[in-house]
Amino acid sequence: MTDKTAAAAPDDDTPILETTGLVKEFRGFVAVDGVNLKIRRGHIHALIGPNGAGKTTCFNLLTKFLQPTRGTIRFNGRDITRESPQRIARLGLVRSFQISAVFPHLTVLENVRIALQRGLGTTFHFWKSERSLDCLNERAMALLAEVGLEDHARMVAVEMPYGRKRALEVATTLALDPQLMLLDEPTQGMGHEDVDRVMQLIKKVSANRTILMVEHNMKVVSGICDAITVLARGAVLAEGDYATVSANPVVVEAYMGSEAAACAEGAVQ
Ligand SMILES: Nc1ncnc2c1ncn2[C@@H]1O[C@H](COP(=O)(O)OP(=O)(O)OP(=O)(O)O)[C@@H](O)[C@H]1O
Ligand SMILES: [Mg+2]
Q1: Where do the domains of the chain lie?
Q2: Cβ < 6 A, ligand 1 pocket
Q3: Mutation test residue for ligand 1: of 55, 214, 231, 255, the one with most atoms within 8 Å of CB
Q4: Which ligand is the nearest neighbour of the Cα of 47?
Q5: Which CATH class is domain 2-92+179-268?
Q6: How large is the greatest C-alpha to C-alpha distance in the chain, in angstroms?
Q7: CA–CA separation, 158 and 105 (whole Å)
Q8: Residues 205-248: tens digit of each pLDDT
């Protein structure tokens, strides 16, 4: 708690997250190449780009699953470049768990309760008393209500349809009380109905929070994102709102097939 109070800067225009010259090399291959990102507080910000552009690597750098080769990362104005993943999460920068991290054979409620306990850290054991357990249940039910899963609390996670599993994943992330939530392809592999549902869910949970998401579905990007950064070959290609970015010919070209892009290059030479 004290971490967050000390780090929060709610009234000013400091970006909640800012990277400067972020580089990640894998044995000489540059996957992220001098990325400067500015994420505004309260925004839903999309990171888009063709396959292999470096989006997931960027996420891994931001959440400290990977150490950058060069560059700095600031969260709420504070340099977090060398912090541990656990510490980053405690400061309020939380990446949504992948579906595999949901315990499939536990109930929806149990999954959220475990996430809440994890958020409390290992040094607190007060939930062992029955009254504290009730408190935890209450908080877990409130989170389930927030993502529209209150009627699924007793269901075993594995039995839920795909879109609802994503909602559970969001609930377990919210349990860690994030200021900035990172979502990597939240609508991947979904049909229309689930995409719409998850889109509305992201919009809903974005109130009082900031969201950075990797998203391929342009309907989602144009529908709910306030700002977009386009990555290609590890570098920032364009930035702005959807209208600006989608009208940029360089962006259009990056999304065309490699054949068309090669033709375009040939024409320039
Ligand atoms: N651990 C690694 N070792 C070596 N190369 C890697 C590693 N991780 C990623 N890469 C390479 O870095 C580049 C960027 O990969 P990344 O997964 O970040 O792309 P992405 O934008 O998330 O793509 P996608 O849209 O397919 O998810 C790719 O060329 C990938 O092969
Ligand atoms: Mg990826």
Answers
A1: 2-92+179-268, 101-177
A2: 26, 29, 31, 49, 51-57
A3: 55
A4: 1
A5: alpha beta
A6: 73
A7: 6
A8: 999 899 999 999 999 999 999 999 999 999 999 999 999 999 99
